[in-house]
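Recap from last week: sequence in, structure out.
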Amino acid sequence: MTLTNATVVTVDYKTEKMTEKEITNYNWLAERILYYTDINVLDKKRTRDNVNARVVFCKIAKETFWCRVGHIAKFLGKDHATVIHSVKGFDVVKNYEHKFYKAFQLILLELEGEDMIVKHFNLGMFDGIDKRVLNYRESIKELVEKLELEKNN
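Predicted structure tokens:
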């Protein structure tokens, strides 16, 4: 069976613009990775630590935020194949790079806590949700810092 008069729609991810929500999510995620690992994912360095930080960034952005590979690559200044390779290579970080896997787990814990707060309130009826989420985020940061201090002592 052949289709006649069919049109093929292609999307060029290089020209498609990212939404404000995506940019906010990427900036937040880059900030959290910087906080836990002291590595900026936007650095162009190819050291092992920088690559592992980008692997964690790509894994969370793709599988937790459900972002497009092209948009993640555009934010990082990389190619889409680099993002795909990073997501596929996450098992190496999980098994051998404990510092980065711990950062991955802590970021997921933060996201899970915020998700629980947001689901608890009806967004249409509660005006102060942003303040509560921000306060909750700060309390999570304080708890994580407290746990890290206990671990180091």
